[in-house]
Amino acid sequence: MIQVFRGKYFLKILLLFSTSIITLMLCISLALYFISDAHLEKQLIESNLELVGQVKKRIENELDFIQSGISETIVNRDVIQALYNKQLENDYEKIVPLNQKLINTSLILKNVYSADLYLPASQIVISSLNGATSFNNLSTQRKEFYQNVQALRKPYWNFNSPSTSTNVISFFQPLPVGSNFPQGYFSIHVHETLLLNILDNASLSDVGDYYVMRRNERIMLHKDKEKVGMASELPSEYTSRILTGSEVGYYKHPTEDKLLFYGRINENDWVIIYEIPESKLHSNRSLGFNMLSATGIGLFLSIVIAFIIATYLYSPLHRRLEVINKPTDSLLFHEWNLIDSVQQKEKERITELSTKVKNNQEQLLDAFLVKSLLGSQDSFRNNSASSLFAHLQNTYPVVLVVEVEKSNGSEQKGNQFIMDMKRVCRDASKQYDVKVICVPIKDSQQFAIILPFKKLLIDPVKHDTILNLAERIQQSVQNELQLQISIGIGTLQERFVDLRCSFLEALEALQFKLVKGNNRIISFEELRYTDPLQYPYSIEDKIIKALKNDHDQAYMDHFDQFVDHLKDQNCTPESIYHAFSMLYTSLYRALDEHNAVDNFTLNKFYAVLHQKNSLRELKKWFKSEILLEFMEKAEQLNGNRSGQKIQKIMDYLQDHVTETHTLTSVSDHFDLNASYLSRLFKQSTGKSFVQYLTELKIQVAKQMLIETNLSVSEVATHVGYTERTFSRAFKKITNTTPANYRLKHK
Fold first, then answer.
1. Which member of 158, 236, 513, 670 has the greatest number of CB atoms within 10 A?
2. How many structural domains does the chain have?
3. Residue 726 and residue 713: Cα distance in Å, rounded?
């Protein structure tokens, strides 16, 4: 055992550790004694001030939202005209749209009790709750209420108590807006629970009490309804300070154990009051005294602990010395001199590993982020990966999903392409206060761009900043890499662990390029503004009629109108898929009446439909495969009409063999689709259109070479060729030249 204490290193550990523990405990005890109480009090005050400020902001936002929600109603043409209509009470046709307008306004906003319009000129009150009522038929209380309203000359918020089980907060707007001589008054009554919920959700009532009072010191909002309308118990000098001081602040009650925090809403003369017992601030004062009392015992124990820890810390070195044959000729020796060579080798190995880790740091972070985006949020709780995203934990992330459009039918792949994408994204974001992270997530064709903002942006700055950065990235990729990309934007998250939520939102937004088209920037916030699909049944009827009547060109033209109609609508991708499914089903049923289709076609359609990522791809696929397939089935229903049509075309080519023909010119002449004509020609003759036309011309030429004395050049011109082209085509089919053919057969 004595050998454990040999060496200078052990003595140094023991002395240094003992001195450090004793000094540290004394310093910590004294420091905590003096600063703990002040720090805890300051921290609690700051946290409550921030909480009250947040509640004030949320209430202001709710009130502003209500005022903005009624802006359209108060400038409505029908409402303005009603102000000056003294005979409105007897005009039922004009009252009904006004009442409906009020009902719509109350439905748009949340927690609305009613929306009312008081028109003194016509002595009528129109309400979304009770309809139109003559002023003379109102109760005495309601008459006094509206008479008081007539004194208003500007918008006004006030507490109101109708004949209901709950109180309401009312907003009054004199009409017309901006006039000093109001002709009517619009009011919106909101349940008080709208604001009480904000206060309750902020947990203000956990350790104290809260209420909202007006400038006249009357309580207008309290969880205890009996206190509503009562005067506050605050001293007048402190009430004056609250009404004239800063918007958010606090003060200590002079006589009671209360600490009051307040937030003033200047626009409405409201004050949020939050009271907590002052003793809560000093509940931890005994911490310093208890710590100082325990210091004496700690000093004694620290000596014992220092010896034990020194022995424990020295034991690995002791075992290491035993491995390298520790010398025994001296009681005190320099341990590190003996293991210097071993240590040097370990340092070299650590340096090598550190370099490797540093080189792979970006790849490790990319792999971790991809797992977090495609997996679950549990990956953030993995201790082994915590060092990878430690610098991102206190940031506010938003995710952009970039999808590279196919270029010339080929996809960009390879590590060099990924590195180029990352470089372009980093360069594009240099002027913004964010260090962009770009990781590939789908075969190098989709990239997740993570923007970890250092501070939480506020609307509308947040959306504008993110949108500008997305536009910059799109333009840089287009200019430097010559690629077209679509970008989906998620919402800004307040915690980095919610990164996957923003990623999924960005993917959902990206799906809307089916509606909006390729090379677009689509924000998740835009998705709420979609409209229901208006299916074009009239166009569908025209398509089916053209199919049954074998009008091929009209059949295709009406389908183009069908797609244009969908393009003009602002609906969801699922609605577009559904519209194509409905059209397919209608075509299927139209032919299935005659057993002209089979289940193979139906199964194939639903397997391919959702693989199309844009309306252009859907149109091209549906037109080139589905419509043509139905066209062929329709032809089968019409018996030999297709054969008769091909024979008619063959006769036409025979009669006009001297002219120049193409598949397009012939299809236009007979009002057919070119692709359909090509397939029908191949099916009927076993030859392509070009092959048949060439053989026809050569057949006519062979007869003229044998039966006439025209030169080869004249024969070529007669069948629509130049002499050189004629000779090449003639030899390809007959394996001989026109001149040799004439000598052999004439």
1. 513
2. 6
3. 9
**422 and 514 together in one domain:** yes
Q: Do both 187 and 210 map to the same domain?
A: no
Tell me which residue of 242, 279, 274, 221 sits closest to 52, measured CA to CA. Answer: 274
Q: Which domain holds residue 593?
A: 537-637
Tell me, yes or no, whether 340 lies in a domain: no
| Of residues 690, 210, 262, 193, the one with CA closest to residue 219 | 210
How far is residue 533's CA from residue 576's CA, in Å, rounded to a whole number? 8
Coil, strand, or helix at residue 638?
coil
Q: Could you tell me which of 476, 497, 453 has the C-alpha nearest to residue 402?
A: 476
What is the tens place of the pLDDT at every residue in 89-147? 788 888 888 888 988 888 888 888 889 988 888 888 988 888 888 888 888 888 888 88
**pTM for the model:** 0.38
270 and 207 co-located in one domain: yes
| Pair (60, 77) in one structural domain | no
Residue 293 in domain? yes
Q: Which of 585, 620, 637 represents a domain boundary (last residue)?
A: 637
- Cβ pair 54, 203 in contact under 8 A: no
CA distances from 649 to 509, 662, 679, 690 (A): 50, 12, 14, 13
Largest CA distance in the chain: 134
The string of DSSP letters for 477-516 reads HHHHH---EEEEE-PPPSSGGGHHHHHHHHHHHHTTHHHH
Nearest to 221 by CA among 192, 244, 198: 192
- Same domain for 414 and 457: yes
